[in-house]
Structures are given as C-alpha cells and as structure tokens.
Hints:
The chain is α+β, with helices and mostly antiparallel strands. Helix 2 (106-116) crosses helix 4 and helix 17 (440-452) packs across helix 18 (459-466). The chain is 42% helix and 21% strand. The N and C termini lie far apart (62 Å). The radius of gyration is 22 Å and the shape is globular. It has a seven-stranded mixed sheet, sandwiched between helices. The protein is built from 19 helices and 24 strands. Strand 16 and strand 17 (264-270) form a beta hairpin.
Amino acid sequence: MDFLLGIDLGTSGTKTVLFDLSGTPVASHTAEYPLYQPRNGWAEQDPHDWWRAVQETIQAVLARSGAEPSAVKGVGISGQMHGLVMLDAQGHVQRNAILWCDGRTQAQCDEITAKLGADKLLALSANPALPGFTAGKILWVRENEPEIYEKCRHILLPKDYIRYKLTGEFATEVSDASGMNLLDVPKRAWSGEILSALDIDPTWLGRMYESCEVTGAVTAAAAEATGLAPGTIVVGGAGDNAAAAIGTGVVETGRAFTTLGTSGVIFAHADEVTIDPKGRVHTFCSAVPGKWTVMSCTLAAGLSLQWFRNQFCAAEREAAAGMGADPYELMTAQAQRSPIGANRLLYLPYLMGERSPLLDSDARGAFVGLSAIHTKGDLIRAVMEGVAYSQRQCLDVFREMGVDVSDMAACGGGGRSPFWRQMLADVYGCPVKTIASAEGPALGAAILAGVGAGVYASVSEGCAAAVRSGEGQQPVPESSGAYEPFYHLYRGLYPALRDSFHTLAAL
Length: 507
C-alpha cells in the first residue's frame, strides 16, 4: 500500500499525519513546543524545536503504521505563515523566529508604506504592510539587531526551514510567500521593485514554486533523522490556511472555510485577483496553480477561549482530567445555559492586537457590559460570541468585495464544537458544515504531495479523491435575528475605544 505524508507546523505544535491515497488517516502524532513572549505583544519560537518535533512526529507515524518508508510517495508541508527565520551562510539559525502574531513592527510597516506608497504596495503585494507580515520583521532586525542582520544570508518561512532540513534546498511556494509583503501576488513572483525599495538582497530569498511542484528530495541525513527513505520527494506545500483550503475542498468559486484555531480565518477561493482597496483582508496566491484566495485573519479566536480556560477554569480542567473529558466540553456546557447575547455581555477578542479587518496592533481585549449578575457561563458564551462576531465582520468585507460565499466548511479546534458551529451559522446567516477528516492542513499538504508524486493528476482530482463532507448546521432564522443587535453593538465598540487603546499602548 502507498501513502502520503502531511506535516502541519503549527504555533502550538507540529502534527504529522500519514494518509492512504483515499485521504484516510492511517497514523497521526503531535509534538508541542513553547511560545516565547519576551515583551508584551511579541511572539517568538525556536526553529530547532520545530525540527525536533518534525523528527519525533515522522518517526512516530511510521512506527505506528508499520508502513515501509519506501511506500511514502511524497511529503507535503503546511505551516504557520509570516514567521521570519534567519540563517547564516552555513545554514545556522541566527535568532528565534519572529512569529505571525508578533506586533512589534508597526514603525517598520509605516516605513515600508512611506517608501513604496500605500497604493503601489497594495497593487504589488495585494496587501498593506502589516505587523504580522515578514517584511517588517526583516527591517526590525536590521534596525534593532544589526549584528544578526549582517550575518544573515537566507530568509525562510517556518515550514520552509523544515523543507531545508529535509532536503537541503532553500525554497518556498506562492501561497506562503504571499504573506511576506515581498511577493508580486498578481504575477506570482518575487517583487524586484519592493526588494529594491527596502534594500533586501533577493539572493537571500528561496526559489519560488507552485504548491504542488517538487522542490527537492529527502537527504541521507534527513532520512536518518526521520526514518523516511532517502530520495522521497518533498513538494512546495502551502501556508497553513492555503493547505486547509485544499484539505477542505475549497478549490472552486463559491467555496470557503472558516477556522477557529489559535487565530480565526475565513478563506475563500477566487479564480481572479480580487483586492480590497482598504486592505482589510488579504489576497494571496492559492495552492491551486494559477488561482487566488481572499483571506481574513483575526489573531485571537481559539486563543481567546484558551486564555480564558487557562486563567479562570482550573476547576473545569481538574474535573475534566478526572472524567477523562475535554475541559472545553465542560466550558461549553456552561455557555449553553447562557442566552444569546450572554445576558447583555460583549467581548472584544483583541488579545494580540487585531489584523482583519481593523489593522491595529494596539487594539486590546475587553469585556463590555460586565455586571454582578454575570456568571462564568455568561463570560464563556460572550467569548465565543465575540469571536463569532469578529469573523462575521470579516465575512461582511468579503461580501462588499463581491466574493461569493455560499458553501462554508468549518475546521480547527473550534470548528469541532457543534455549539460553536451553530453559533457561526446563525451569525453568518449561511450553512456551516464540517469535513469528515479533521486533518485539514495536513490533508491538504498530503494532497499536494500526491499531485507532485503523480498520484493525482490535479489538485481538484486529489480533493475529489480525499475530501469528504461531514455534518452541518443550518442557520436558525430566529437565532440569526436575535444575534443582530448584539453584532451591531459589537461593531461600534472598537471605533469608540480606538483612541483609548492607542493611549494605553503609549503609556
């Protein structure tokens, strides 16, 4: 039997899944690693931790499955986007990677916008200069850590560091590179104009590929470290959300998915380049060759609920451990006892600042309307509703742009909750379905590997073979109507608090 391997390099951990050619998971393993926050609003990880996790997870799935290494026909990698990995001439990591959710680079983003002009930057990179994107991080290191910058000879995205460790190749692909502010997104190639304006050496950037193209093969050293067979092909892969789109079958106009992982995402397929003139959502190259996507990203979706769990739900965590249950199930049960609107309590999910659609790294989280009547269940429901409203606000921008979304899939940890999915369906006003496989990005990466290996003739053919829909929630008109006044109140809170957020950040 032949297999495909999908590696999903996430923020909390790396998940590696071995699939058969029908997309059925055969073995899966996850290895976690720490997130470092040296200052408020900063976020870093050690790339060596990623590579150790990849080695552990590949070894584990091969051992559990009993698969012969030679039966693995291809490897695909998905990964957290926007992160900056800097290597010297010998390929050694020079500092911790600066991650997607790091908000330290607003000054550098302002510098990028000033040098290129907002309109020119938007036309070339299809996105404004954002603190989460890679270009600002490069300039920050140059301005604040010149001794490290002087040694730099290679700039990689997180998953592309893993590619380097597997194959020895410095390469990337169009979907992940779209989130760097360095790619000419309409042309699907590095932008010489941007690189020249920012004085970034183009030789530092990896060779560009489409997501399903073969970028290299597993070296003898990587084979010894992982258990894979030497010469196993490694394809371009994709940024985590682009890979999730493949893993959920979002490869045709009208299809979209929403994910509630650490971040919150809505991701829609587009046959043509469609750019929001205000830069509130992102336009990226799709992992489908010659296609594009429109994507929103909020920074603290599942993270908001995780934060609440970690800080205020010790009793639920203890009870769940004794029951062999998930603490989120106990939290959700409390939230379900609270009515729509959480007894007139609203939550702003801006724990890490906010990207879509606010573009404000100084925004911060808040409970609004808190009173002595509120229970823990009200607070949990308010967190879940606030995240749903933040996603709806992004979906409204899609609709302004004329991007059709009539088929919505849900993935990520939050997408597995029937209660949260129903809330999303009611707030969105459209059906929200699950995908039979919960392996979204890893499955998408594996499908791309299958195309590169010749197992599937195209990405669409791979999706038809490997992606199957699960259960879905239909919007309930009465509930949709009940959410609307709270949603409109939610939309008005950030404008009312914006100046206060900026003043607080400056103290």
